[in-house]
Design goal:
The protein is α+β, with helices and mostly antiparallel strands. Helices cover 23% and strands 18% of the residues. The chain contains four helices and six strands, in the order H-E-H-H-E-E-H-E-E-E. Strands 1-2-3 form a three-stranded antiparallel sheet, with no helix packed on it. The longest helix has 15 residues. The chain is globular and about 45 Å long.
């Protein structure tokens, strides 16, 4: 399950592991798994975080290739690795910018429809530019 931005920032020094299949592109907190489940996965041999980048290094970086869920993010898979310790001021600006960008997404325009069928979420937004979004669940 993906994590929220605040939670990601609290756990910026924990290993970064994908929560679901991801195509190449910018990595956000929505792409990362909750580090609270890692100990059980490591104990059972389902996950190995050796050499894994941290959440702070991966948010804003770029995934080079398509990867499946529970893939630990390593330097071989990620471009533009971020420096989480650069400045706290920069992190605060990033938090504010992300929070501001996320705010409009909370408002649901009139005419919005969402259905879940066959393991796929289908979201249709009639207002604006007739945006239709589908993704697996």
């Amino acid at each position: 399950m993906s994590i929220e931005l605040e939670y990601a920032l609290e756990h910026k020094n924990d290993p970064a592991v994908l929560c679901c299949r991801m195509e190449p592109g910018e990595i956000s907190h929505h792409n990362l798994e909750d580090p609270a489940i890692f100990p059980d996965l490591i104990d059972t041999g389902l996950l190995n975080t050796d050499g894994c980048l941290t959440i702070g290094q991966c948010i804003g970086a770029t995934l080079k290739e398509t990867c499946d869920s529970l893939t630990p993010l390593t330097p071989a898979l990620v471009d533009n690795i971020q420096d989480p310790g650069a400045t706290d001021e920069g992190a605060a600006e990033t938090e504010t910018a992300v929070a501001d960008a996320a705010a409009p997404a909370m408002a649901v325009p009139a005419g919005t429809q969402m259905t879940i069928a066959g393991g796929v979420v289908k979201l249709y937004i009639a207002e604006g530019k007739d945006i239709a979004i589908e993704f697996p669940v």
